[in-house]
Amino acid sequence: xxxxxxxxxxxSLAVCLRAEPELRGECVVVTDGDGPRAPVVACSAEAxxxxxxxxxxxxxxxxIYDGLCFRSVSADAMRAAQAAxxxxxxxxxxxxxxxxxxxxxxxxxxxxxxxxxxxLESLYDSETVLVKSLVRSANAVGFExxxxxxxxxxxxxxxxxxxxGRAIIPPREEWSFLAPLxxxxxxPSDQLxxxxxxxxxxxLGDLAALPASxxxxxxxxxxxxxVRRARGEDEKPFVTRVVPLAFEEVIEVDYGxxxxxxxxxxxxxxxxxxxxRLAVRGLVCGDLRLSLxxxxxxxxxxxxxxxxxxxxxxxxxxxxxxxxxxxxxxxPVERIVVVAVAEQLRPTQLDLLRPNGPAPEKLAVTLAKLTxxxxxxxxxxxxxxxxxxxPDAYGVGKFQLSNSKFQKEEGxxxxxxxxxxxxxxxxxxxxxxxxxxxxxxxxxxxxxxALRCQGRVVMSAGPWRVHGEWWKEEPYRRDYYDVQLxxxxxxxxxxxxxxxxxxxxxxYD
Amino acid sequence: xxxxxAAIASPDEEWVEQSSPEPVxxxxxxxxxxxxxxxxxxxxxxxxxxxxxxxxxxxxxxQPLRLxxxxxxxxxxxxGGGIPRGDVSEIVGxxxxxxxxxxxxxxxxxxxxxxxxxxVDLPDALxxxxxxxxRAALERVLWVRPPSVKVAxxxxxxxxxxxxxxxxxxxxxxxxxxxxxxxxxxxxxxDARRAGVALIVLSSHGxxxxxxxxxxxxxxxxxxxxxxxxTGMATEMKPLRHRGVxxxxxxxxxxxxxxxxxxxxx
Lengths: 509, 266
Known about the structure:
The complex is a heterodimer. Chain A has a six-stranded antiparallel barrel. Chain A has a five-stranded mixed sheet with strand order 5-6-1-7-8, sandwiched between helices. A four-stranded antiparallel sheet of chain A has the order 9-12-10-11. Helices cover 30% and strands 28% of the residues of chain A. By secondary structure, chain A is α+β, with helices and mostly antiparallel strands. Chain A has four domains: 3-178, MutS, DNA mismatch repair protein, domain I; 184-244, DNA polymerase, domain 1; 247-343, 2-Layer Sandwich (Dna Ligase, domain 1); 419-508, no CATH class. Chain A contains 13 helices and 20 strands. In chain B, strand 9 (165-171), helix 7 (184-195) and strand 10 (198-203) form a beta-alpha-beta unit. In chain B, helix 1 crosses helix 2 and helix 6 (149-162) runs parallel beside helix 7. The chains are: A alpha+beta, B alpha/beta. At the A-B interface, helix 13, strand 13, strand 14, strand 15 and strand 17 of A face helix 4, helix 5, strand 8, helix 6 and strand 11 of B.
């Protein structure tokens, strides 16, 4: 078995820098919570140069240097970052495991993922190519990772930890790699470390040479475990974890966002990160789900429907903007969770008999842009004949390239009259003379109607009564007429006996 | 700079160079007194309007003209085979003259060939059942209902840019005539040429100017009633402008198949 270890050093700091890349090179101190007593959990190298270090309280760190930049990382952000790291691993191998041999009681080490890479020879020429691909993908999602490859998880992790970023231990050469490493790399407890120093045990080779049973009887289970690790033996077998299709990014802001521009400024990098994660997994974004934490302790959940799955940030942001402008949140936003619903871009099998259509990816982007332009997913789609007897019923379906087998339709067609719909039906006044329709004009309430349906009735046919949907709150009941007016148009009018009003809902053309 | 030639279409559709366009261009410039870059389009429009169907000014076509037919012999005969692909065609007329029936027939024919078509429906007037009755495959129709003229034009440009569509209908027949910027049509014409798409513009009056390769006007001659039931309409198709394709025009009868009185008529 060959195992690769993907490790993000100083994970909480990396999560912070991933969210705010402009902080790279600055004196950043990451704290576990807010307030002066919150402990420092990570520091950038620049901050450490001023004396800041993990373990100090925020107040103590502030006294060291005024230029330190303090950030706290929420558990949600850590979880989202860990998911992004898992995406990188899962994009390369279907067998991945979070955490590692150092995990405690069922927990996992954040920023650490193992992946089994046996059997990937057909996809990657060599392990070096695989490692380069892993590093490249991790960089794309915003992480600088260390990668180690070995035959066991322990050895792979030590290789990643010690190999200055990338290290590959060839099979059956683990021992020669591990033996000279210092014992401190196994991170023993302080008491155990003192004992080993007193015994003169300084390297893993020295520790591995000791009989495990003798060490266990003197140092207890921790000592035995340490010996096994020094020998490069895994404590637990590789347990594959199925990575759920969950793409979520979280951010908490210090002050409530009230207007759309700052909101989009904050959301844009989140969507960019989500799209990168989707790209790494070879997926596209379906709908976008927003969960907004509000300043009044409320929560605003909403779904932005995307007509065609896409990974283009710009149209998605435009959709988001249109949605929020139409339905603004009731209070300032303090916490933003963006979830991208992942979808697979279905491959289209080209048909010899069918003309070339647009490329699926390009069509998806075009549909997303069209939806953003039109402002509503319902305005872009494919026309659907509604399953209803109501004459003005219609539907809009999702437009997608069909994979169904195409058969060229033969047979003779003939010209037939089409109806041009008037949506919504325009109210009319209809005058009758001796029981016959005589004159039509827009109603007084509708006098400024752009559709000038007005004139003397030249010929009319009807009525045809249509009624249905009695099970609904507003069933329809209409008397339809076909009317030719003096302006030359042939209109379809109906009289609604419930409202006692006339309407035009289309004309023949 | 592209060299323009004046050519006369011979009966067997070959393009024969006859003379330099300069004399015509001079006359036009003197008449209209324009010296800017729009004068070239003005000259072209002037010559084509003066000699409809006989003279075509512009670059001689390097490829055979591809036509989008309606699949209905009566209509194709009137259109001279169909409307050109990769160019702008315009259908104009008042209400109840059969404009929509004609466009539906063209779109349906394209979908029956397995192509995708798009309808940019500014007035939100598309009736899916009508399109289906024209034997169109609705699953191959992209229906866009833009909220404004600007969005409609932008949407058309996006669809043409995506490529792969057989025909695009830009329906601008709104009750209030939209105001269109002048630079729209050269851009759409260029995109249609690049994508090889038949761009059909439907309006109540001509909006494309000299950028339409074909413009047909429809006039209702008679509304057909039988036993006081609406059964169709007789329409006359008039070629208002044609470039590269000869549109003979003539009369056609469009039958009703789904109006309220259909069943009663049967």
